[in-house]
Amino acid sequence: MTVAIALILSFILLLSAFASISYGYMVREKTGTMREFASASVGIISANSGRIEPDSLSMRGLLVLLAGSDSYNILMTDEVGRIIACSDRELSCPHLGESVPASVIAEINNSGEFTGLVKLGGIYQDNRYVLGMSLRRDEYPSSYSGFIIFSASAKDIGRIWRWSAAIFAAIAFVVFAVAFTVSYLVTRKQMRPINEMAAAAHRFGRGDLSVRVRESGREDEIGELSYAFNRMAESLERGEKARRELIANVSHELKTPMTTITGFADGILDGTIPPEKEREYLTIISSETKRLSRLVRGMLEASQLSDMDKTSVTKKSFDVAEVIRLALVSLEPKITGRGLDCDVSLPEEPVLTLGDPDAITQVVYNLIDNAAKFAKCGTSIGIELWKEGGKAKVSVSNRGETIPKEELPLIFDRFHKSDRSRSVDKDGVGLGLYIVKTILDAHGEDVLVTSSEGLTTFTFTLTVKD
């Protein structure tokens, strides 16, 4: 609609400008031609008026000859403006004896010329282009003392102008129609993806996150908008899927200990469980309660880690080798309790890295704890630290069951637990590796996992302080 209004206004302005300019041009051309004609004619009349009587048929014939067939009319007046000769071809000229308005004569006397679109005081029935001059007595002293009035019909100019304007209007209308049609089709084509995105947004508002818009592949704003819209839709759908999975996982993790606690507590209360076994089942209830506490604490910790500010956590510097040593000391009872050994390779000099030392300590602790949990008894846990390309790299490896390839991309997901972990890890809540990934993402660092022929290795990076 806006484009149509703009085109219509442009069409009207263009037509008005053409009408004004073309009419003015035609008038100037007509008056210019008439002035040239009048100047030449005045010279001829002045040269002959001394020997030809102004009111004679000879003078009238000269005027008729000069007027020709160009629709000019020539009037000859005396000194006071009374018409004494005319170029009319009729024998009885109605103009003879009439007087030209005194204002016209006065202007000729003052400025040497009169021009205007007038009826000349009623001498003519319609407005005509009039040009008045005096006879050239300075050039021809013997010439008659009077004035020559030339006039041309305005109807001819109006007719030619209307014909030209009609042709221009027709051409402009065709151009307008073509431009409007092309503009409409182009606008409709450009608006189609926008309308699709609007409809998709409405469906989004109703909860349908599976909708996508068609990507045209065009390298323009519309193509970029379609691409960005689909990426946004995919992100929202992934977020919704993750939310639902989180709810399902939390419900699953809470259901088992709650069922155990409720069942054993009810058994003790109603006497189903004999008194001599109450302590055994109370121990199980206590263990499940602690497991619930760990789950809630882990969820809270994971939520807090998601809000970590990358710019603030990377300002501190610390010795990552010392962090590894402290984590090993904390986990020594668990490692030795499972009959495991440690193969540690650390540089002798400090390795200063940027990050939050407490958060990285938790990363190292979780990885070593995870390695100890799934390592085969009697094997060694490998821990190595080295520098490479401005990065410090830490790897933690263990010998145990190989993680299936299809599970490797999921191993850092929240609450993910492989089948092997469900039988081995009775105390875990599936948040350890998720917390590792969240902390390292907040630091802008990478963590990778490989598992082949029983050897599983986790490797993460830290930025070395300059």
Which structural traits does this protein have?
466 residues; Helix Hairpins; 5-stranded antiparallel β-sheet; 5-stranded mixed β-sheet; Beta-Lactamase; rod-shaped; 11 helices
Verbal overview:
The structure is a single chain. With 466 residues, this protein is α+β, with helices and mostly antiparallel strands. It has three domains: 2-160, PAS domain (Beta-Lactamase), CATH 3.30.450.20; 221-306, Orthogonal Bundle (Helix Hairpins), CATH 1.10.287.130; 310-463, 2-Layer Sandwich (Heat Shock Protein 90), CATH 3.30.565. The protein is built from eleven helices and twelve strands. It has helices spanning 2-49, 57-67, 102-111, 154-205, 221-270, 278-306, 310-313, 320-337, 357-374, 419-424, 432-442, and strands at residues 72-77, 83-86, 114-118, 128-134, 147-153, 317-319, 341-345, 352-354, 380-388, 391-399, 447-452, 455-463. The strands form three sheets. Strands 2-1-5-4-3 form a five-stranded antiparallel β-sheet, with helices on both faces. The protein has a five-stranded mixed β-sheet with strand order 7-9-10-12-11, with helices on one face. The chain has a two-stranded antiparallel sheet with strand order 6-8. The longest helix has 52 residues, at 154-205. The model is unreliable at 419-426 (pLDDT under 50).
